Amino acid sequence: MGASQASEELFDISHEDGVEAPLTDDEIRRTVAFVLAEEGVTRPCLVSVSLVGDGRIHELNREWRGVDRATDVISLECERPDDPDLADGEPCELGDIALAPAYIERQAAGFGTSPAAEFTLLLVHGTLHLLGYDHIEDADAEVMEAREDELVSALLGGAGLGHVTTTRHRGAEGA
């Protein structure tokens, strides 16, 4: 299913003062809608995307994950689109994705990718987390990484990042 066939999505995109992303708000919306459509989501979904600085992502990482340092992306799942308690056509409050563009830009340089490509990868990564993907166990990481490879390649017109190892981001900070 292509992005143009996706169900209605409702987005709240916020920028912390002074924080700029390498993608426009429209590109962010299209990326999330593409992932949802490609994952077969037909229910309207509410998705919040916050673009924050290193200080705020550090606070969120400490509060929600117990990790006392900045990171690239954090996803907070609320509801699943297939939740049986949701009425037909009732929007799903999918969740929140917080991204730290300055952190991502530095990370991109370390991996030899562009800030826009790295940001796209992490937006796809965060959206997949909202849909239940995870990478704690090796088998789950392989599934998630393969799906990220497919989606990022499609989004970047075949000029993907090559195979992405989700845990590569943790290695950059020594975690």
Write the SSE topology:
Layout: E1 9-15, H1 25-38, E2 45-51, H2 54-65, E3 73-77, E4 92-99, H3 101-111, H4 115-130, H5 138-155, H6 168-172
Parallel strand pairs: 1-2, 2-4
Antiparallel strand pairs: 3-4
Helix pairs in contact: 1-4, 3-4, 4-5
Function: Single strand-specific metallo-endoribonuclease involved in late-stage 70S ribosome quality control and in maturation of the 3' terminus of the 16S rRNA.
Family: Belongs to the endoribonuclease YbeY family.
InterPro entries: MetalPrtase_cat_dom_sf_prd, YbeY, YbeY_CS
Characterize this entry briefly.
Belongs to the endoribonuclease YbeY family. Keywords: Cytoplasm, Endonuclease, Hydrolase, Metal-binding, Nuclease, Ribosome biogenesis, rRNA processing, Zinc. By secondary structure, the chain is an alpha/beta fold.
Structure class: alpha/beta
The tally of strands reads 4
Q: Strand-residue fraction?
A: 15-25%
- Give the overall average pLDDT: 86
Which CATH-level-2 architecture? 3-Layer(aba) Sandwich
Report the CATH superfamily.
Metalloproteases ("zincins"), catalytic domain
Largest sheet: 4 strands, mixed
- Low-confidence segments: 1-7, 167-175
Silhouette? globular
* N to C succession of SSEs: EHEHEEHHHH
CATH level 1 class label: Alpha Beta
> Roughly what percent helix?
40-55%
What is the spatial order of strands in the main beta sheet?
A: 1-2-4-3
Q: Give the helix tally.
A: 6
Span of the ends, CA to CA: 37 Å
CATH topology: Collagenase (Catalytic Domain)
Number of domains: 1
Q: C-alpha Rg, in Å?
A: 15 Å
